[in-house]
Design a protein that fits this description.
The protein is α/β, with parallel strands linked by helices. It has helices at residues 51-58, 81-86, 104-108, 122-135, 152-164, 182-197, 209-215, 238-246, 301-308, 331-336, 346-350, 357-369, 379-385, 402-414, 432-447, 459-465, 487-494, 497-501, and strands spanning 13-22, 25-35, 40-44, 66-71, 74-76, 89-92, 115-116, 119-120, 170-174, 201-205, 218-223, 226-232, 266-274, 281-286, 290-294, 316-321, 324-326, 339-342, 420-424, 451-455, 468-473, 476-482. Helices cover 33% and strands 24% of the residues.
């Protein structure tokens, strides 16, 4: 199909000169945006760039202070999300808005249930839901299934079908892969492509640059509330896009590596370690270095991290910490022996979202060493060291941006003064500027002598940060690469290509 939006075809939606202020502070200034049928238009920028505000203006959540919105060439104003929906515009939020104990059909038509003879017409509601799912090619979901019984990827489908059920022609998607596991992301890719084929105009907001380049036909960059550029995706490189977003090239995001000639003492050694998920793992981490752990989804990266930290312990082989053999059978044991673990699931496992910044930062130290240990910790200094931006230590963590939430997770583990730090997807779901802060924090810890094992699905990040890269394939270590390997070299090991060649 031809790429729309790059021709003389008229846009479905056109925003011109959009401006917005909150309490006298300008959030958007003179922003233009066009959305075309059958096109994925990516909207990118750091946190605070104005992306969410522009999306909410499009969806009728906020009204602009200046500028105009046109739909099919007609000027319109949306006083509410319902008004935007009536014009064919819907939004899929990052956080799912579903009721787990109601069926798929009940969620999709919540508050808009068809009625027959004064009662909800369930037969029609389920038939209409089945029709929408069939239109999208999602025949594996039953309209009668309770939402809580669906995997996360299918819950995402329900959210999208719910938005489309209002006859939407424009769909705004806010970080749609934030809640998805790596193996579920490709399912979303397929769904987005099907939406394109059916002529839906998609505004796609994501911090994941690979998704932006994989899915979009055009990219709009916002910085400090202003339009920086709008270009066809094929005309941009990752480096150019990052430079537009943060004002510096991609390489400049990564701090200098450690001196390869001056490795520290071995802090963690695995000798033939394994469990039901991974086997024969031989790995050393030295003080002051960052070792990257690469591999495809399911290769065993997270299983190694969870075993080191005692979540799902090794059942074979040996583990040495500081040269002494140890048995790590629980996370508490791991923490007390100087091992910290930043999980990939920040919201589900890393934070107590309705508790304060203070309570989250002290959570592990209190649990592992008791309340008496808290008096020796300068919490304010710790939060400053990880540059957490919050109104106060009493602010609920759920009110913070993704980047600041991740910094609180790091603070929680730094509070126990680890010798070994295992970080799994440490920058997932945070903007480029916050990523650089996390990179600097990790490199600073390495310079202080902490041994770091870093897992990341973003190869540029893993390569840019690691002093060595260990690659896994099918539950085993496939090979090791020195600092700065090519993506091709990593993928050759990750896919088993070099093993087959040997």
């Amino acid at each position: 199909m031809s790429v729309t939006g790059l021709t003389d075809e008229a846009p479905v939606v056109r925003l011109r000169g959009i401006g917005k202020q909150f309490v006298g502070n300008p959030v958007l200034r003179d922003v233009d945006l066009d959305l075309y049928a059958g096109e994925v238009h990516a909207l990118v920028g750091e946190n605070g760039a104005g992306k969410s505000t522009l999306m909410k203006i499009l969806a009728g959540v906020h009204q602009p202070d200046s500028g105009v919105i046109e739909v099919d060439g007609r000027e319109m104003s949306f006083a509410s999300p319902r008004a935007a929906q009536a014009a064919g515009i819907s939004i899929v939020h990052q956080e799912f808005n579903l009721l787990g104990d109601r069926s798929v059909a009940e969620n999709i038509y919540l508050g808009r249930e068809p009625v027959r003879r004064g009662q909800v017409d369930r037969k029609r509601m389920e038939a209409d839901t089945a029709g929408l799912l069939d239109w999208l090619g999602e025949r594996g979901i039953s309209p009668r299934t309770l939402v809580r019984r669906l995997p996360v990827a299918q819950q995402q489908v329900v959210e999208i079908v719910k938005a489309l059920s209002t006859d939407a022609r424009v769909l705004a998607m806010d970080e749609p892969t934030a809640a998805l596991a790596d193996h579920e992301v490709e399912l979303l890719y397929d769904l987005v492509r099907r939406l394109r084929e059916r002529g839906i105009a998609i505004l796609y907001v994501s911090h994941r640059l690979r998704e932006v380049f994989d899915l979009s036909q055009r990219i709009t960059v916002l910085k400090d509330g202003e339009l920086v550029t709008c270009r066809p995706t094929r005309e941009l490189t990752s480096d150019q896009l990052v430079r537009h977003m943060v004002g510096r090239p991609l390489e400049a995001l990564f701090p200098d590596r450690a001196d390869p000639e001056a490795p520290g003492e071995v802090q963690l050694a695995l000798r033939g370690a394994g469990n039901e998920r991974v086997h024969d793992i031989d790995l050393e981490l030295r003080a002051g270095e960052i070792v990257g752990l690469a591999g495809l989804q399911g290769a065993g990266r997270s299983a190694v991290a969870r075993a080191i930290s005692g979540v799902q312990p090794f059942t074979e082989g040996t583990v040495e910490l500081g040269g002494a053999a140890v048995r790590i059978r629980s996370p508490r044991t791991a923490v007390r022996r100087g091992v910290a673990y930043v999980t990939e699931d920040r919201k589900g496992e890393g934070l107590a979202l309705r508790q304060s910044v203070r309570d989250n930062a002290l959570l592990v130290r209190r649990a592992a060493f008791g309340r008496r240990s808290l008096g020796r910790l300068d919490l304010a200094a710790l939060l400053r060291s990880v540059t957490v931006l919050a109104r106060s230590e009493d602010q609920e963590v759920r009110r913070l941006s993704g980047g600041n939430q991740q910094k609180v997770v790091l603070a929680k583990w730094l509070a126990v003064e680890p010798k070994v730090l295992v970080v799994d997807e440490p920058t997932r779901g945070i903007d480029v500027g916050a990523k650089q802060t996390v990179y600097e924090l990790l490199r600073g810890l390495a310079r202080e002598g902490v041994a770091i094992l870093m897992i990341s699905s973003e190869l540029p990040e893993l390569i840019g940060m690691s002093d060595r890269v260990i690659v896994m394939h099918d539950g085993r270590i496939a090979g090791a690469l020195p600092a700065g390997p090519s993506e091709e070299a990593v993928m050759a090991l990750a896919t088993g290509h070099e093993l087959e060649a040997a």
